[in-house]
Amino acid sequence: MIRVGIIGSTGYAGQELVRLLLTHPQAKIVWYGSQSYVDQKYADVYRNMFKLVDDVCRGEDLTALANECDVIFTATPQGLCAKLVSEEVLTKCKVIDLSADFRLKDVEVYEAWYKIKHASPDYIKEAVYGLCEINREEIKKARLIANPGCYTTCSILTAYPLVKEGIIDPDTLIIDAKSGTSGAGRGAKVANLFCEVNESIKPYGVANHRHTPEIEEQLGYAAGKPLTLSFTPHLVPMNRGILATEYASLTDPKITKEEIRAAYEKYYKDEYFIRLLADGVVPETRWVEGSNFVDIGFVKDERTGRVILMGAIDNLVKGAAGQAVQNMNLVFGLPENTGLAFAPVFP
Fold first, then answer.
1. Measured CA angle at 314 (ends 313, 318), to 5 deg
2. 199, exposed or middle or buried, with CB in 10 Å at 0-12, 13-18, 19+?
3. Could you tell me if 122 and 155 lie in one domain?
4. Tens digits of per-residue pLDDT, 253-287?
5. Residue 330 within any structural domain of the chain
6. Would you state the pLDDT for residue 190?
7. 169 and 70, same structural domain?
8. Rounded to whole angstroms, how far apart are CA atoms 247 and 72?
9. 3-state SS, residue 313
């Protein structure tokens, strides 16, 4: 049985980790870490856990936690994991970080976009970017995993095969993405109040959203060169879900939709969590809600010589906690879908 500790267990992503791991056949949560609710019963913070979790919330001492756990999930704001991680911790257990602290390989890029000094840059090179469908073999050997962001997971997986195969010009890529409000976290913010969000949709982080360099870096590896793209996120009045609609020019207007589909199938045919939709079917967030699936569709625009790519995920599952569990499964030699092989919730 894998002994699990969660730092930040009372945030939305942390609570989703708890929900998923409670029914995981090979994992047991032994530490519910929380900075805000120390010594309070976890089920008093999240009443959906009444009679399911009897534990109280504990602190965020990663060194003490490493003595009790085989793996630690850090579902915390940027900067905290970098301050807490150490060689002592990493020699005792695996760390899967859900923040951005180890996603970007250039510390100067991280500090420029996140406006904080990186506390442990020596571990950046070692950390493996935890996008399982792309970095599976590296993840299996890792002791520090940088769990990708929610927007980035959806955006990268939707475009990756076409970038890798040279079917689209990645420098023409425009990503228009929309997320439910849980992506902003559980903290009290006026902009996220019901009356501020309901019956409205708004772009934010225009031309400067912090997931931009992450998407560029990972798709740049696929392209074999640095690239620059446009990414604009939007907040929509729903709890969960991300829908990314991406536009790019084909490298050859004569490329057929059959060739585009073949590229997707080359990389995703055997991927349990990626569902390539039939022609004429577009992704919808409602069909992935509560699941670890990624639904992907595309349309070739014959008139413009461009292709329109569409992807949908649940931002708290494949975009955070589910992907983290998927990473844990890989690290501990379990089938990748262990504890995650459940259907999306509908309605």
1. 80
2. exposed
3. no
4. 999 999 999 999 999 999 999 999 999 999 999 99
5. no
6. 87
7. no
8. 38
9. strand
Classify residue 277 by its DSSP letter. Answer: P
> Strands, E, within 47-200: which ranges?
71-74, 94-97, 128-129, 144-146, 174-179
Instruction: State pLDDT tens for residues 124-147.
Output: 999 999 999 999 999 999 999 999
Catalytic one of 57, 69, 93, 150: 150
Residue that has been written with the tokens 């900075």 in this structure = 35
Residue 31 lies in a domain: yes
* Residue 183, pLDDT score: 87
Tokens of 162: 């076409």
Q: Quick one: tokens of 204?
A: 């934010």
Q: What is the pLDDT of residue 60?
A: 87
Strand 94-97 and strand 144-146: the pairing is: parallel
DSSP string over 127-139: PEE--HHHHHHHH
Of the candidates 179, 162, 110, 142, the one whose C-alpha atom is nearest the C-alpha of residue 320 is 179
pTM over 0.85: yes
Rounded CA gap, 294 and 78, in Å? 25
State how many domains the chain has: 2
> What is the pLDDT at residue 192?
82
Q: What share of the chain is helix, strand, coil (3-state, %, to 5)?
A: 35, 20, 45
Instruction: Name the amino acid, one letter, at 334.
Output: L
Q: Is 150 a known active-site residue?
A: yes
**Same domain? 117 vs 174:** no
- Whether residues 116 and 235 share a domain: the answer is no
Q: Quick one: tokens of 323?
A: 């992907």
H or E stretch including 216?
Answer: helix 212-223
Low-confidence ranges of the chain (pLDDT < 70): none
- Count Cβ neighbours within 10 Å for each residue of 242-279 and write b for 16 or more, e otherwise: bbbbbbbbbeeeebeeeebbebbeebbeeebbbbbbee
